[in-house]
Structure formats: C-alpha cells, structure tokens
Amino acid sequence: MAKVIQLGFLGCGNIGGGVYHLLTEMHDEILKREHIDIRIKSALVKSIAEARSDVPRDIMTEHAEDVLRDPDIDIICEFMGGEQPAASFMQKALENGKTVITANKMALALNWHKLQAAAVEHHAGLYYEASVGGVIPVIRSLTVSLNADEIDQVMGIVNGTTNYILTQMSQQGRPYADVLAEAQRLGLAEPNPTADVEGFDAAYKLSILSSIAFHTRVTYEKIHREGITCVSPDDIAFGREMGYTLKLLAIGKRNGDSIEVRVHPTFLPSNHPLARVDGSLNAIYIHGRYCQDIMLQGRGAGDKPTSSAICGDILYAARHLDTPIVPSFANTAETDPAINFTNNWTCRYFVRLDAADTPGVLGSVAGAFSGKSISIASLLQRPSSNGRATIILITHEASEQSVQEAISSLNTDLVKVESMIRVEN
Ligand SMILES: NC(=O)c1ccc[n+]([C@@H]2O[C@H](COP(=O)([O-])OP(=O)(O)OC[C@H]3O[C@@H](n4cnc5c(N)ncnc54)[C@H](OP(=O)(O)O)[C@@H]3O)[C@@H](O)[C@H]2O)c1
C-alpha cells in the first residue's frame, strides 16, 4: 500500500515551480518505485494574481498559516529566499512538528542553530541538500558517506554567476563591468548582483559546508570575504601566462583545533581539477585523512537541477518521517571554545606591481619580501607605458601577515601595488 505524503510550499517561483513540475511528471514513477504517493497541497506566494510560475492557482495561498498550520501537511518545502520571513516560517513549521526542506543558504547559515534545535526538540527532519552547489550531492556526501572520516579541506566554486563572469573575462580578455552587464542581460546575474559578486552567497555556503565538514559550528561572521569586483583582465592574463587560472573559491581548512575559512579570488594551477570548471558550473573539492581527494561537479543553479536535489530530499524525508535525520555535529549557537579561527593562513601569493623602470627597483622589491623571510618562486617583468614597468611575482608558501607586511614596506616612490591574489595548489 502506498504511503501518502502531503507537501506545502513556502514560495513558488523558479524553484517552487520546478519542484512542482518534477513531482507531477515523476509522480507515477515514484509511486511505482518507492510506493510513495506525493501530493502538493498548498503553495504560499506573495500575490496569487501576480504569481510567476504556472502552478495551478487553486493550490496557491497568500496566507502562511494555511501552510504552516495545516494538519494534513507532512513536509514543508521553503523556496522563498532571503533570511526573513523564511527563517521564522521554517522555525514555526518545525515547532509544529513538520519536517522542513530548504534550498535557502542565507536563512540556513544565519539561523541554523535555532532551526536545528527546533527540529531536535519537535522530532522533525531538516534537510538542505540544494542549499550548497544546487544538484551536487555534497551535503549528503559529507554528512553520510564521509561521516566517519576526518575532513581537513573543502574548497569549492559554489557561485555560478561569478564563475561565469571570471570564465568570460579569462577566455575573452574582457573587463569585469562588461561581462557583468552581459550576465545580467542573459539572466545569469541579478539586477542587484551584490550577493554574488561580493562573495556573500559563497560565504553562506562555506559556513554550511565547513560546519558539516569540520563537525563544529562555523558562523558566517568567521569567514574572510572578498568578491571579484576588483579583478582586472590584466591579472587574469598574467596569471594565465604563468600557468594559473583565476576562480572565486570558498576555502575551508582545518588543522587540529585551527580553522581557516575564506572566500576570495584565487589562482589555481591551470591543471588543477577546479581550474577546469568553467561557466556557471559549480564544483567542490574535498580532502580527508582516509578518503583523500574527492571532486564533485555539477549545476549549481537552475530550476531543473536544483529541483532534482530538492526532490531527492523530499523522498528521503518521506521515508524517514518517523525517524528524522539531524546532521551529526554539535551545531550550537557558539563554536567549540577550543577552536581557533585564524586569519593568518599560509598559501602562495601573486603580486602585481607598477614600477619605475629604473635600476635597483627589482632589488628593492626582492629586499622587501626577503626582509619578511618570504622567498620568490617566479618573477616576470614587462615594460609598460611612460617609462614604467609591470612586475609580477609569485611567492613560495608564506603567511598572510608576512606578505601584508612586505607589501606595506615597499618603497612607494618606486612601486605601486596593483593587486595581491592568493594562490592555492
Ligand atoms: N534559482 C536557483 O537556481 C536556485 C538554486 C539553488 C538554490 N536556490 C534558492 O531557492 C530559493 C528560491 O529561489 P527562486 O529562484 O525560486 O526565487 P523566486 O523565483 O524569487 O521565488 C520566490 C517565491 O517566494 C515567494 N515569496 C517571497 N517572499 C515572500 C513572502 N514574504 N511572502 C510570501 N511569498 C513570498 C514569491 O512570491 P511571488 O511570486 O508572489 O513574488 C515566489 O513565489 C532561494 O533561497 C534561493 O537561494 C535557488
């Protein structure tokens, strides 16, 4: 006998519409395969008259309570976006004992401990596979498949908009503003692109990923964040000449009780698996003590891929309604006090300088770096205009603090720092 599962949607735009269509098209197949009869009972929108998806109007409502308080609804799926009221609606749903599924990284990253506490207290499930990397099954990989391992690194391209922009800048040598405007025309960037291009979206996702990977709460505030708005085509071209590809990476590393979490433009060797992930694709590289290297890649957005991940959560939740799953780490309001979050990480550095083309300049630059015990791995010098030269150097491994100090100690009469970009292996 089939198990009937009733769903309520909070939000029914791109993703709500996509989930509705997948579940409608796959209904009979799921029933046959899984013996689960999934029915969508209601969907909250702001305005039924102006609703954008082609979901039948008769299941739509403008009143959240119709979804949150309906005793027939087993699972509530949140597809509204933004922090509020999405987070408080999810909390209410969990307090009413409803299992919640969300794709909302912002609401989750900022309110996770409250949502998880409500889920545990009210014996409800909380699932969020699509909140990071769209269809890429990274949450379940970390919380189930790799749960016994000791993960020391997660590094990902988790924002398709910025990856599209950097790919176009790299392949066509075009400036940032040009490519952003094109991405907006194509619907690949929002009219207000701040969340993507300033790295906020990637930082929310890194908060979720690193909390799960490192089994401790990594709050959004701990993440060092830089976006791509200052990236120049010159940096990309010089980096490429030296064998590197530029990506906006979300990086989490754990070494004993020390954790570093950062989102910033990063050069990778052009043969690194992440360097070859182009356009709007997402990918996440994981390293662990036993599993060693893993790379997961796929569509990080779009209604169809995202709906696939969400509907996987829906079926999983439907099978586990009596024994809801809660991720196995201490996701409390406060991080374990033993953990130290460091901003003084170690990596290599790409530095581009505009220099006077006179004898002694190279020596003075080299001196500033060697004075901080930083050795230079490669160096490139090119004449530019007006008797100036461009100097690019890539350091060996050095601490963030020592590089910042070396840069501050440069003789500003001779050189001007155009950019400093971290390099990962
Ligand atoms: N789009 C993607 O590819 C993608 C991928 C992964 C994750 N996500 C996440 O999925 C979520 C939904 O994204 P989306 O692209 O589907 O957004 P969307 O197209 O803007 O849809 C949002 C829906 O929520 C409704 N809504 C928003 N605020 C509301 C409020 N205060 N009261 C009632 N209804 C409200 C909207 O109603 P109206 O239609 O009446 O405005 C609309 O139906 C977001 O958290 C996003 O980060 C999206």
Fold blueprint:
Layout: E1 3-10, H1 14-25, H2 27-34, E2 36-44, E3 60-61, H3 64-68, E4 75-78, H4 86-95, E5 99-102, H5 105-121, E6 126-127, H6 138-145, E7 151-157, H7 160-172, H8 176-185, H9 194-197, H10 200-214, E8 224-225, H11 233-241, E9 244-255, E10 258-269, E11 281-288, E12 292-299, H12 303-319, E13 340-341, E14 346-356, H13 361-370, E15 376-383, E16 388-395, E17 398-399, H14 400-408, E18 415-423
Parallel strand pairs: 1-2, 1-4, 2-3, 4-5, 5-6, 8-10, 10-13, 10-18
Antiparallel strand pairs: 7-9, 7-11, 9-10, 11-12, 14-16, 14-17, 14-18, 15-16
Helix pairs in contact: 1-2, 1-12, 4-5, 5-10, 7-8
State the fourth-level CATH superfamily of the largest domain: Dihydrodipicolinate Reductase, domain 2
> Which stretches of 5+ consecutive residues score pLDDT under 50?
none
The residue fraction in helices comes out at: 25-40%
Q: How many structural domains can be distinguished in the coordinates?
A: 3
Identify every distinct bound molecule in the structure, by name, code or SMILES: NADP nicotinamide-adenine-dinucleotide phosphate
CATH classification, class level of the largest domain: Alpha Beta
Structural class: alpha/beta
Gyration radius, rounded: 24 Å
CATH architecture of the largest domain, by name, is: 2-Layer Sandwich
| CATH-assigned fold name of the largest domain | Dihydrodipicolinate Reductase, domain 2
Question: Number of helical runs?
Answer: 14
Q: Tell me the span between the first and last alpha carbons.
A: 54 Å
Mean pLDDT across the residues is: 95
Could you describe the largest sheet, including whether it forms a barrel? 12 strands, mixed
Strands, count: 18
